[in-house]
TrEMBL record:
SUPFAM superfamilies: Glycoside hydrolase/deacetylase (SSF88713). This is Polysaccharide deacetylase family protein. Residues 1-263 form the NodB homology domain. It comes from the Bacteria. GO terms for molecular function: hydrolase activity, acting on carbon-nitrogen (but not peptide) bonds. Gene3D superfamilies: Glycoside hydrolase/deacetylase. InterPro entries: Glyco_hydro/deAcase_b/a-brl, NODB_dom.
Length: 299
């Protein structure tokens, strides 16, 4: 079974501390992954915004064992660091090591709060900023993207098509498809996340840090047409839960599975025969709010 690794880098801490640890781990196991960076102001690390959304408190209590980055009171009144300014060399090192580098967005906190209902101008501004920054860092145009929190809108699909991206990973689903949302059709292939994430599973009945990897591995045993995609966070699997990632790699390698980049999954597709699917909204156990989901197939 092919297992695509979709790494979201959401904060400066994730970039500077989590990514190097993941690079070392992946190098030890001789594999490559796809990294998607939020590149603008790291407002998630200085507080405000969604951190104080009452709907998030239950989620944060349940995911406390993962030891995700916390907001310190002293940082609530400081200016947020710009991730790209501090992590440019790190981003170049990811690409130099043979991994794929793509964009998530500019301001992740704003994206999570507003993207689903945003207009075309707001969406273009977010993505144009991120694309320009990545090009300035790597010297190459962005070829892939992944929406933070699986939050998208039809204008994002239009932007991706206009940029001629190879593929995007903005949805949850079961197989590669061509997306249609609110009348907007895109020829940019969607590679959806198929497996539950660590923060969705932790705290569920019978699941603890000791056996979390076993549940994720068990889910990856279900046969799917194009293999699986596992979404991990530099702030989780790259920091306190690096051992979780290593346990998964050991189990996948031991079962002759092939952890790889999303681009390698994409290259294996028969793109002339990909189905079109509506993109809908649905809930995933263990995660608050609604996510973009692969929905009904279209003729």
């Amino acid at each position: 079974m092919k297992i695509g690794l979709r790494v979201e880098v959401a904060t400066l801490q994730g970039a500077l501390e989590g990514v190097p640890r993941l690079l070392k781990l992946f190098d030890e196991y001789q594999l490559r992954a796809s990294f998607f960076f939020s590149l603008g102001a790291d407002r998630a690390s200085v507080g405000g915004g969604r951190w104080f959304n009452p709907q998030q408190w239950g989620y944060r209590r349940r995911t406390a064992p993962l030891d995700l980055p916390k907001v310190g009171l002293a940082r609530l009144f400081t200016s947020p660091p710009v991730i790209a300014n501090r992590a440019a060399d790190l981003i170049r090192s990811v690409s130099a090591a043979g991994h794929e580098v793509g964009i998530a967005c500019d301001d992740r906190l704003a994206w999570l709060a507003d993207a689903a209902d945003a207009d075309a101008g707001w969406t273009r501004q977010q993505m144009d900023r991120a694309a320009k920054v990545l090009r300035d860092i790597t010297g190459e145009a962005a070829q892939i993207s992944a929406a933070p929190g699986w939050q998208l809108n039809p204008h994002l699909l239009a932007w991706q098509a206009g940029q001629g991206l190879r593929f995007a990973s903005d949805t949850r689903g079961r197989s590669a498809f061509l997306p249609v949302l609110q009348g907007v059709e895109s020829g940019v292939v969607q590679l959806p996340t198929t497996l539950p994430t660590a923060d969705e599973l932790i705290g569920q009945p019978g699941i603890s840090l000791d056996n979390l990897h076993e549940f994720i591995f068990s889910e990856s045993r279900h046969l799917l047409p194009n293999g699986h995609i596992y979404s991990l966070r530099a702030e989780c699997e790259g920091l306190s839960q690096l051992s979780l990632m290593e346990k998964l790699l050991v189990m996948w390698k031991g079962s002759s599975d092939e952890p790889l980049t999303l681009g390698e999954l994409y290259d294996a597709l028969d793109r002339e025969k990909l189905p079109r699917h509506q993109v809908g909204w649905g809930e995933v156990t263990g995660r608050p709010g609604y996510l973009a989901m692969q929905s009904l197939p279209l003729e």
